[in-house]
Design a protein that fits this description.
Length: about 500
């Protein structure tokens, strides 16, 4: 039985004429096409002989040709089907089966939200599941469900950029919102105050965590779900986009027995992914490695990972104090958010531990001023700080459909300043895109970075409270490549585009 992809063949609900919604849900089949002599049917379970025999019998004397489809494809199509068919009066207020007892409702709320199942009598549930499944299948990092004046807008953040997926009826927004709130253990009746929660869903047998944020807006609410797929492939350090020189500099510092390594950049710049890749390079069998995260985004074999929970006072600083009693060699603190955590992290590095963490600053050298503003003494910063990695993520050109264009004169001048060799043309993304890149012109992302290594001269400069420009000047003399230079080098190499580096990096 041939397996097909409904998206690739361009099949939509409006073409699925023939089977009722209830029949499709019950049998998990979709009629693809019917002619005078033949019927093409897609089925989820190709080993369901009873359904296959039944479908063949209802189409006698026509020949039935079966194709198999994935459960994810089926769930998405049913969600779209439901959007066409559901009536407002059916959906309003609907979050659970009215025949369920209170005990059954509570049990369902406590269970993981299984996206692989379809409920025959729950159209809103089908719509929400299709939104989630589509986002996961597209490798989106976030789902945005936004109430507009006339409809509900669904957007996915893919490769760092928001893309509109679909619009659904405004009349069912309260039901969609209530269902998500219940699953995230939030108050479904509260629509005036912000709420934050979490839920775990099951997609094709895998557990995926969703962090939920809901805020009130003038048109209703904005619901954002951050996707954390713990079973996703753990990227290695050399797969992130760092050049050879950068890799050597980072690797040399992470192999030190103690000290502080900080990654900095805005939210969504890949800091945690880089931290996980750094940890993966260490000999986990010989070292006691503990991470403190919010939340645990990926599971790393051989490493002890702790998820904080502010609701029970399990905070970064509180957990860090306990972790120090566990005889660790390496500690990863997901984020330094306050002065207490910062001081604990630095003093832990001072007492013989290797500490890895993140901080929010615009560039590498700004970390020093940020730590000083938190009340930490320059001598303490200078003593323990080993390395600062500032990074951004930019989309990579889709090599399948990229086209050449002339390099602007101002960019040639910038490249010349940084002694970057470049020709007269550069790769740009194809505005029409292709199937390989989902018509975007981009596929995947890569790191743009600068790495500040703390040598003896910089240590002395920190103690003497030298200016950031003095430190940068010395670091560049010692071999540091600025983020702008790294971005221009990737542009010259045809990895990314001018639009992308101007969007993320000041040139």
């Amino acid at each position: 039985m041939e397996k097909i992809d409904l998206k690739k063949i361009g099949f939509t609900y409006v073409q699925s004429d023939g089977y009722s919604l209830e029949f499709m849900k019950t049998k998990r089949v979709i009629k693809l096409e019917e002619t005078e002599n033949q019927v093409k049917v897609a089925i989820v379970d190709e080993n369901d002989n009873d359904t296959i025999t039944y479908i063949e019998s209802i189409h006698i004397p026509k020949k039935v040709v079966f194709n198999s489809i994935s459960q994810a494809d089926f769930v998405v199509l049913i969600g779209e089907t439901t959007n066409f068919n559901v009536m407002p009066e059916q959906a309003i207020g609907e979050t659970t089966n009215s025949n369920e007892t209170p005990e059954q409702v509570k049990k369902n709320e406590e269970e993981k939200y299984n996206l692989d199942t379809i409920k025959p009598d729950s159209p809103v549930d089908d719509i929400v599941k299709s939104i989630f499944v589509m986002a996961i299948s597209l490798d989106a990092s976030d789902i945005h469900i936004e109430a507009q004046s006339d409809d509900i807008q669904i957007r996915y953040r893919i490769d760092g950029v928001l893309q509109i997926s679909r619009q659904i009826k405004k009349s069912i927004f309260s039901s969609v919102s209530s269902l998500i709130k219940i699953r995230a253990k939030l108050n479904p009746m509260e629509q005036r105050l912000p709420q934050d929660g979490r839920m775990t869903v099951i997609a094709e047998g895998e557990d995926i965590d969703l962090r939920v944020s809901i805020i009130p807006t003038t048109n209703g609410e904005s619901i954002v779900l951050r996707i954390f797929n713990k079973s996703a492939k753990l990227l290695k350090l050399n797969e992130l986009g760092f050049d050879t020189n950068a890799l050597e500099r980072i690797q040399a510092d992470v192999e030190q027995p103690n000290g502080l390594i900080l990654l900095t950049g805005p939210t969504g710049s890949g800091k945690t992914t880089t931290l996980h890749a750094l940890l993966e390079t260490l000999p986990v069998n010989e070292l006691k490695i503990i991470t403190i995260e919010d939340p645990v985004e990926q599971l790393i074999p051989g490493i002890n990972q702790v998820q904080i929970n502010e609701e029970i006072n399990l905070s970064f600083d509180g957990m860090l104090r306990r972790v120090l009693r566990q005889d660790p060699n390496v500690i990863m603190v997901g984020e330094i958010r306050d002065a207490v955590t910062a001081e604990l992290a630095l003093r832990s590095a001072l007492t013989g531990h290797l500490i890895l963490s993140t901080l929010h600053t615009n560039d590498s050298v700004s970390v020093i001023a940020r730590l000083e503003n938190m009340g930490l003494e320059p001598y303490l910063i200078a003593t323990v700080l080993r390395c600062v990695v500032a990074q951004r993520l930019v989309r990579k050109v889709c090599t399948n459909c990229a086209i050449q264009n002339t390099v602007p004169q101002r960019i040639l001048e910038r490249m010349e300043k940084y002694k970057i060799d470049a020709g007269d043309t550069m790769l740009v993304s194809n505005p029409d895109g292709c199937e390989f890149c989902r018509k975007t012109g981009y596929r995947g992302r890569t790191v743009i970075s600068e790495i500040l290594q703390i040598d003896p001269e910089i240590t002395e400069m920190i103690i003497q409270r030298k200016t950031a420009s003095d430190i940068i000047r010395h670091a560049e003399t010692a071999g540091m490549r600025s983020m702008a230079a790294d971005a221009l080098q990737k542009l010259a190499n045809g990895v990314t585009t001018l639009y992308e580096i101007e969007r993320e990096v000041m040139l």
